[in-house]
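re: the backbone from monday

yeah here it is again, tokenized this time
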């Protein structure tokens, strides 16, 4: 559980190198986003994915039908409509509140991207009392108003993102909650007209709000307009229907709002701009999305070229779902090239985002049933589980991943290693509590992230356990432990971990390791500065959680903080704790 008093990271805000707090409306000025003083603003933000629009993977729904409307229908089949409606009311209430936005500001972010579901603002076209009409709903506008007030109080820019357009804008149906049995956005003039009308309504409402940073008018179109076998619009095509709709939306916005930036996204999940240029509005930002590829200049050269050719700012509107090492390198690449960014998502069931929603008891039974892997839960069992899930959405019940925020805000600008937790002598130090910092600085791991798009389709995972921390270091949870016990697993030869340990008095100290190994051959040594010990053997203990404590080396340590590194000479062992003791002979 999170202690809200300790959300801010001390000293983090001092490391920001560009303007973070706004001064009036943002605007596109040549190749940069600037405020009304003409100062460059590098947007550092997160997307509130999963709030207004659930995507199945965030809920660990892996079976067919991950769209929100399918999940909702399945819940109704389990618990009934009344309880399902109550769950969604609690979901929308609990997911994002003022405390969430206050925390983002304290951590050093300066913007928020709101993925909107159109059905919170207006009725679907097939439910309109008058065909072609627009019935406006209060809920979406009220939620946006509240979010805007929280952002204004923290001097954060709010970017409105139409994530689920009427009818759905792509063949990746989960993204937009699309129902393939009904006409898509591109197959229905009524859906297109409703999309245009929604943006006109939003622009009219927020025309004079300077803390609205921009209008991101269509998220991730992925539709084959010209080539039948090009399902997601990634082939060489002109994208004329996409351009026409974006121009029509822009014209509707400009009827009531001349000030706000308009963000455009290409086809193929925001990256195919064939036939889209030149820009048609002088206050436009070009967005691109970036996932699972390398972080070198050549990997974004296409968008640097677009910026240069059309004298227009570019923005990384969505990225994430990877390791801390990948996050750091991607953000460093962006900011080195004066490109702002919005990370995805803020929270979900999973550890590779700032906040993790804990999985409640009984929820896995629902997932197993939907995936045809287990029996159907009773209505009461399912209701108890989803009620707990909605409660777990609250920030005070989330798991705060300080390492993720550190990788996004501090590490792109600093190679400094800082303690993950305070450590001193004569007490076990969890092996998972190694220092915060970059790979090769705070730790060294051979598998640091997912680069499968660049490396030809080989998906690596970084942390194979997907728990506790989001570095490359593999971490597992000891089965059956309550409270949870975590350990470093799958240690390979050459990998190492660093721990900052405060020593009260200079002298010789022995480092003990509590380790396990399912086979013989593990070897390890410990160093401080350039001083190293001889190798110590990690014995075969049996099962992965059959632990044994062994001395791995004695070093002379200075008074105060000491950076102690544990090196794996030969791998295939697990590490639960280390301990620094004055005299190993006194240790029982």
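seq for it, each position gets an aa:
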């Amino acid at each position: 559980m999170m202690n809200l008093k300790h959300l801010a990271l001390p000293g983090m805000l001092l490391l920001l190198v560009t303007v973070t707090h706004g001064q009036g409306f943002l605007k596109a000025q040549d190749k940069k986003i600037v405020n009304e003083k003409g100062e460059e603003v590098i947007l550092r933000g997160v997307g509130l994915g999963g709030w207004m629009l659930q995507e199945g993977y965030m809920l660990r729904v892996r079976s067919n039908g991950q769209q929100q409307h399918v999940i909702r229908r399945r819940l109704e089949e389990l618990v009934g409509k009344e309880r399902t409606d109550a769950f969604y009311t609690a979901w929308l209430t609990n997911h994002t509140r003022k405390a969430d936005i206050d925390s983002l500001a304290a951590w050093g972010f300066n913007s928020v991207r709101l993925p909107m579901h159109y059905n919170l603002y207006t009725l679907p076209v097939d439910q309109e009392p008058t065909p072609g009409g627009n019935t406006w709903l209060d809920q979406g506008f009220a939620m946006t108003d509240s979010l805007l007030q929280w952002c204004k109080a923290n001097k954060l820019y709010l970017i409105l993102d139409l994530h689920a357009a009427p009818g759905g804008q792509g063949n990746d149906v989960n993204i937009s909650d699309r129902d393939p049995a009904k006409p898509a956005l591109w197959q229905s003039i009524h859906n297109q007209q409703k999309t245009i009308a929604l943006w006109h309504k939003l622009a009219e409402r927020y025309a004079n709000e300077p803390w609205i940073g921009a209008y991101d008018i269509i998220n991730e179109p992925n539709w084959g307009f010209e080539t039948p076998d090009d399902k997601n619009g990634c082939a060489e095509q002109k994208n004329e229907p996409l351009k026409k709709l974006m121009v029509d939306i822009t014209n509707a916005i400009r009827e009531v709002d001349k000030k706000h930036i308009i963000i455009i996204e290409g086809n193929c999940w925001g990256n195919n701009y064939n036939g889209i240029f030149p820009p048609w509005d002088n206050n436009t930002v070009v967005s691109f999305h970036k996932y699972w590829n390398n972080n070198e200049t050549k990997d974004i050269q296409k968008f640097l070229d677009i910026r240069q050719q059309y004298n227009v700012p570019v923005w990384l509107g969505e990225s994430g779902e990877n390791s801390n090492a990948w996050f750091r390198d991607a953000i460093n690449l962006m900011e080195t090239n004066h490109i702002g960014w919005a990370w995805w998502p803020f929270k979900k069931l999973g550890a590779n985002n700032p906040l993790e929603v804990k999985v409640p008891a009984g929820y896995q039974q629902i997932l197993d049933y939907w995936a045809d892997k287990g029996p159907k839960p009773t209505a009461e069992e399912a209701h108890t589980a989803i009620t707990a899930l909605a409660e777990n959405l609250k920030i005070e019940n989330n798991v705060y991943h300080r390492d993720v925020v550190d990788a996004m805000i501090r590490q792109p600008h600093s190679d400094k290693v800082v303690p993950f937790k305070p450590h001193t002598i004569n007490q076990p130090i969890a092996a998972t509590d190694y220092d915060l910092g970059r790979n090769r600085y705070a730790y060294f791991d051979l598998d640091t992230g997912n680069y499968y798009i660049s490396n030809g389709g080989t998906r690596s995972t970084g942390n194979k356990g997907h728990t506790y921390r989001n570095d490359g270091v593999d971490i597992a949870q000891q089965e059956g432990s309550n409270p949870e016990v975590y350990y470093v697993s799958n240690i390979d030869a050459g990998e190492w971990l660093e721990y900052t340990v405060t020593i009260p008095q200079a002298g010789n100290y022995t480092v003990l390791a509590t380790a396990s190994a399912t086979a013989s051959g593990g070897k390890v040594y410990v160093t401080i500065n350039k001083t190293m010990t001889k190798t110590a053997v990690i014995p075969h203990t049996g099962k992965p959680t059959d632990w044994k404590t062994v001395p791995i080396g004695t070093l002379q340590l200075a008074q105060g903080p000491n950076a102690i590194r544990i090196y794996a000479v030969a791998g295939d062992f697990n590490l639960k704790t280390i301990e620094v003791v004055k005299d190993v002979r006194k240790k029982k």
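The chain is about 25% helix and 25% strand. The CA atoms of residues 517 and 573 lie 4 Å apart.
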